[in-house]
Hints:
By secondary structure, this protein is an alpha+beta fold. The protein contains one helix and five strands. Helix content is 15%, strand content 28%. The N and C termini lie far apart (31 Å).
Amino acid sequence: MGLTFPDGSVSLTTAQGETVVLRICDLCGAGVPDAADTDLAFHKRWHRLTGSGNWVDPATGRVHRLDSSAG
Protein backbone atom coordinates (compact mmCIF):
# COMPACT_ATOMS: atom_id res chain seq x y z
CA MET A 1 0.00 0.00 0.00
CA GLY A 2 1.69 3.18 -1.18
CA LEU A 3 0.92 6.84 -1.07
CA THR A 4 -1.50 8.34 -3.55
CA PHE A 5 -1.43 12.10 -3.88
CA PRO A 6 -4.40 14.00 -5.28
CA ASP A 7 -3.74 15.68 -8.62
CA GLY A 8 -3.81 19.42 -9.02
CA SER A 9 -5.31 21.28 -6.12
CA VAL A 10 -7.81 21.08 -3.31
CA SER A 11 -9.61 23.79 -1.41
CA LEU A 12 -10.78 24.12 2.14
CA THR A 13 -12.86 26.60 4.08
CA THR A 14 -11.59 28.07 7.33
CA ALA A 15 -13.74 28.54 10.42
CA GLN A 16 -13.99 32.21 9.39
CA GLY A 17 -15.50 31.24 6.02
CA GLU A 18 -12.43 32.00 3.90
CA THR A 19 -11.54 29.62 1.06
CA VAL A 20 -7.91 28.49 0.83
CA VAL A 21 -6.58 26.79 -2.29
CA LEU A 22 -3.83 24.22 -1.74
CA ARG A 23 -1.66 23.07 -4.65
CA ILE A 24 -0.52 19.48 -4.17
CA CYS A 25 3.18 18.64 -4.51
CA ASP A 26 3.54 15.50 -6.62
CA LEU A 27 6.82 14.69 -4.84
CA CYS A 28 5.85 14.74 -1.19
CA GLY A 29 2.09 15.26 -1.13
CA ALA A 30 2.31 18.56 0.73
CA GLY A 31 -0.56 20.98 0.34
CA VAL A 32 1.09 24.30 -0.56
CA PRO A 33 -1.10 27.38 -0.02
CA ASP A 34 -1.77 29.35 -3.17
CA ALA A 35 -1.01 32.75 -1.66
CA ALA A 36 1.25 35.77 -2.08
CA ASP A 37 4.94 34.95 -1.59
CA THR A 38 4.37 31.17 -1.47
CA ASP A 39 3.55 28.82 -4.27
CA LEU A 40 4.20 25.35 -5.62
CA ALA A 41 7.16 26.47 -7.78
CA PHE A 42 8.85 27.90 -4.66
CA HIS A 43 8.18 24.62 -2.83
CA LYS A 44 9.71 22.58 -5.67
CA ARG A 45 12.77 24.86 -5.69
CA TRP A 46 13.11 23.95 -2.00
CA HIS A 47 13.16 20.26 -2.99
CA ARG A 48 15.90 21.00 -5.51
CA LEU A 49 17.99 23.07 -3.08
CA THR A 50 17.79 20.52 -0.27
CA GLY A 51 18.40 17.51 -2.50
CA SER A 52 15.03 16.05 -1.59
CA GLY A 53 13.81 15.99 -5.17
CA ASN A 54 14.12 12.24 -5.68
CA TRP A 55 12.87 9.55 -3.32
CA VAL A 56 11.39 6.08 -3.57
CA ASP A 57 8.10 5.04 -1.96
CA PRO A 58 9.22 1.85 -0.18
CA ALA A 59 5.76 0.29 -0.39
CA THR A 60 5.28 0.66 -4.15
CA GLY A 61 8.80 1.22 -5.45
CA ARG A 62 7.56 4.33 -7.27
CA VAL A 63 10.33 6.86 -7.81
CA HIS A 64 9.22 10.43 -7.17
CA ARG A 65 11.33 12.81 -9.25
CA LEU A 66 11.51 16.55 -9.38
CA ASP A 67 10.28 17.87 -12.72
CA SER A 68 13.21 20.01 -13.87
CA SER A 69 10.83 22.26 -15.85
CA ALA A 70 9.01 23.34 -12.65
CA GLY A 71 10.30 26.57 -11.19
